Amino acid sequence: MAGFPLNGFLASLPWTALAVAAVLAVTFAVAVAQRRHSVMDVAWGPGFVAVAAVSWLRTVLNTGLWRYTRHPNYFGDAAAWPGLFLVAADSWPGILTVLSPALMVWALAGKTGKPLTEKAMSARPRYKEYVESTSGFIPWPPRQPAGGS
């Protein structure tokens, strides 16, 4: 099956896809690190872990990658899967794995990741304003909240 399914112009697609998947995996890692760092900033106050846990549950992180999407960790994870699929699609058996990235993107963006997190965070102070100004999944420049200046 030489040359199937990708050949000629498309032969570089797996390498491009791997590079994109790597960038998006780094996006995921940075988002997680930013969330952890914001908790650790609080953790050094009086009461250490208790203050960190209580404060983290009451706040909305809206800096770094979290300024452009409410779920940079899920976006990075979800976007890396299709890139990995394109690497696998360089061979006939690899094409059969198409359902794996589709299922992961669906779960992270529409079924478990984003929806469950948003439901859990909806009671946090300033979360409504954060939802109004920040993209729900795909990173995008912040919007001005309704009624904002």
General description of the model:
The protein is an all-alpha fold and 149 residues long. Helices cover 61% and strands 0% of the residues. It contains seven helices and no strands. The chain has helices spanning 13-43, 49-58, 72-88, 92-95, 99-111, 113-121, 127-133. The longest helix has 31 residues, at 13-43. The radius of gyration is 19 Å and the shape is elongated. The model is unreliable at 40-56 (pLDDT under 50).
Question: How do the strands and helices of this protein lay out in sequence?
Answer:
Blueprint: H1 13-43, H2 49-58, H3 72-88, H4 92-95, H5 99-111, H6 113-121, H7 127-133
Helix pairs in contact: 1-2, 1-3, 3-5, 5-6
Q: Please give the oligomerization state of what you see.
A: single chain
What value does the Rg take, in angstroms?
Answer: 19 Å
Low-confidence stretches: 40-56
Q: Identify the overall geometry.
A: elongated
Order of helices and strands: HHHHHHH
**How is the main sheet built?**
none
| Strand residue percentage | under 5%
Distance between the termini: 61 Å
Overall SS class: mainly alpha
Please give the number of β-strands.
0
Provide a quick synopsis of the model:
The protein is built from seven helices and no strands. The chain has helices at 13-43, 49-58, 72-88, 92-95, 99-111, 113-121, 127-133. It starts with 12 loop residues before the first helix and ends in a 16-residue tail after the last helix.
Key traits:
single chain, 7 helices, 0% strand
